[in-house]
Structures are given as C-alpha cells and as structure tokens.
Design brief:
31% strand; seven-stranded mixed beta sheet; 30% helix; four-stranded antiparallel beta sheet; globular; alpha/beta; 284 residues
Length: 284
C-alpha cells in the first residue's frame, strides 16, 4: 500500500508527495509536527499539515530570505530571526564572519528538537556560539528590544490563525522600533496566485508600506510551496534593495550558493504585471 502526504493549497487544489516512511509525529503544546522520508523531496517537515520545508528545495527559501538583505546592508552585526526553528536560515546567516549575534525566537521547542534529530544539516549551526535561542512569544520578545538589530528576518508560518499576529501593523511597528536607524526587515509574503493567499499578501504589504519608508516585494520559485511561486517582503529604514546593492561586496565572500546570485538578486525585484497591479492597489 502506498502512503501519500497531501497538503491542500486551496479547498480545490492539493499537492501530494509519496512517502516512504513517516519518521516522526508528535502533537506539541502548539501544533502537530510531522517529518516524512520521501523519494522525490527527501525529508519533509510539516506543521499542522502544511509543508514547511523539504530537503530538496529548502535552499531556495533560505538563500533568498538571507542573502538578499545581507548583500544590501553593508555591516550587519546583530540579527533577530523569528521562527525558522529548523535552523536553515541561521545556517545561512552564520556563514557571514562579521555577524556577532543571532537571536532566534521560536515558540515551540519541540520543532527544534525534531529538526536536530531528523534534519541535522539544517540545524547544524544552531549550536554556533553567536546563536542565542529564546523560546518565547515573538511579539512579547520584540517589545523589550528597541534599537538593537541591524536585520530582522520574520520566517513565520502563513498569515492565518495563530500566526496572523505576525502580519499586523502593530507587529511591523514593533519590528521598526527594534531596528537601528539603518535596519532592514525581511519577511515571507506567501504566494500571490490563489485568491486567499493573494488577499493576505496585499494586506501584509499595505501594512509594511505604511510603516517603513522603503518597502519592496521580491520573488522566488519554490516547487513545494503554493503554486510554486513565493514572495518575500523587503522593508528598510534606509537602504534600497537595488540602488544600495553592491554585488562585488557580496562576491568577495566567495560563498557557494545553489539559487541566489547577484544577477538573480536584481531580477527578483522585477515582478510580473498582475503582481505589480496588486501591489499598486494597496500602496495607493
């Protein structure tokens, strides 16, 4: 008998992945955690029935949410990461030698423990001496930090149910206050393709654009996410994601990447016409 994991992207659309083994299943105090072994995507982490990452394509998400802001800001030393309990975002950030502190705020300790056990490559830099892990509510945590960070990365789940608090005007205002005068915030903005997700993306962008003087959206193509098409928000107090981008500074790190490149960095901010219109609607 074949075992399949199905994720509903809408009530009428679902994405199925054939499963070899169900490696881990636990109901934590916050959510249902599952890790599967699959023939096509390797190990898959799902929370409450939604795919968070797969070994096959997680590099796209992690590289685009980290290297884009890190290549724009000239001197990131202190970073706050919200969510990202699997460790993939931290792994990419820890490659930068100038980074002095990475505060990781994750509500659910069971996610970190599961990923340490079953996704060790992702979690490989969680023990870096610069990484400080806090099991806390992110809104409560950030309220106590003013003018402390050069970069905030919001790697939250989709903006529905208990995660909706990470997509409010109040939350973005708290992030603004926690950043230094030249700080950058990057967040995942979901997919613009299906109507439910598109509406949430527009609400989020409108709130960010009303909070930060510079607010742009950029894109990546991630096969296991809804419609295979994903957006990120770039919000900044000072730096423009293209005008202040110095590709040579980033190339001097000599990082090997599998998705991100300086050329792709620029191209990711050139959006299709339907998406430009959606963003213009709420920016007005």
């Amino acid at each position: 008998m074949e075992l399949w994991f199905d994720e509903f992207h809408t009530p009428d659309v679902r994405h199925g992945i054939r499963v070899n083994r169900h490696l881990f299943s636990k109901k934590s105090d916050y959510q249902q955690i599952d890790i599967f072994e699959t023939p096509e995507f390797g190990r898959v982490l799902a929370l409450d029935g939604s795919v968070m990452l797969t070994e096959r394509d997680e590099f796209i998400y992690d590289e685009m949410i980290t290297h884009v802001p890190m290549s724009v800001h000239p001197n990131v030393k202190d970073i706050l990461v919200i969510g990202a309990g699997d460790g993939g975002v931290v792994k990419e950030l820890a490659r930068y030698p100038q980074v002095e502190r990475i505060d990781l705020v994750e509500m659910d300790p069971e996610v970190l423990e599961a990923c340490r056990a079953y996704l060790p490559e992702n979690a490989s830099r969680l023990n870096d001496s610069r990484v400080h892990i806090f099991y806390d509510n992110a809104l409560r945590f950030i309220r106590r930090r003013a003018n402390q960070y050069d970069l905030i990365i919001v790697d939250s789940n989709d903006p529905f149910g208990p995660n909706e608090g990470y997509f409010t005007r109040e939350f973005y205002g708290i992030c603004f206050n926690a950043l230094r005068d030249d700080g950058i915030m990057v967040n995942q903005q979901g997919s613009p393709f299906f109507s439910h997700d598109a509406d949430a993306m527009q609400r989020s962008h409108q709130r960010i654009a009303s909070t930060f003087p510079i607010s742009r959206v950029y894109q990546a193509h991630i096969p296991t996410y809804a419609a295979g098409y994903w957006l990120f928000g770039f919000a900044s107090k000072k730096y423009h994601p293209i005008d202040d981008f110095d590709p040579n500074r980033w190339l001097n790190y000599h990082f090997r990447t599998d998705y991100y490149t300086p050329k792709l960095h620029v191209g990711a901010f050139y959006l299709p016409a339907f998406l430009e219109r959606m963003l213009e609607e709420v920016e007005k």
